[in-house]
Amino acid sequence: MIVELPGRLYSAFIDETQRAACAWRDVPAHAMVDRRLLSRMEEAVNAGLECIQLGATDDVALHHESAQRSEAPSASPEAIVLAATVAHPEATRLRWLVVGYSVPRCPNDACAELFDPLVRADASVVVWHVAASLFTRFQCGVDTQPMLAAQLRAWSGYGIEAWCRGYAGPDPYLSFMARHAVGVLDDRVDANDRRFHDAYESFVGP
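The structure corresponding to this sequence follows.
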């Protein structure tokens, strides 16, 4: 799936998106931030930007699937990319691009709607939604656990619970996120418990 952006939006979108994606690299070494998540989001952005091309025209309306021509002047490049993403749920790299630049902004729902087709196609992707939910909680102070619990239950038909309960891979970060998902599903997680904070910090701390 290729999305064309008009010339007057293309360069700015590419530059700003790339700059934001790697901004985490400037975070002080002592700061507690999930570098593994942000690194994964940067990879998603870099891969997804290959789906964005310079359009042959500066007419924004021609590039905005959901916009009326009278609304075209206000169409942002992100709106154009999001419209294409929503219209084409099978466009995995494009969807990961939007997830990649959205997750670091700490949305309360941890991009649940964007993640949905990705999780449906591959249950293991759920760990990145879990990580994004925790990121929003710890970076922005939002109690995301009720939303995470509701979303995990909504995805029960995608096989995410079986995947999380059965994960036995060697990656301790993925194991932590899978265990956290199981704990949330089983109502065993007290996000205010200091032990939970310590466990999370052990994976995302410096």
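The mean pLDDT is 91.
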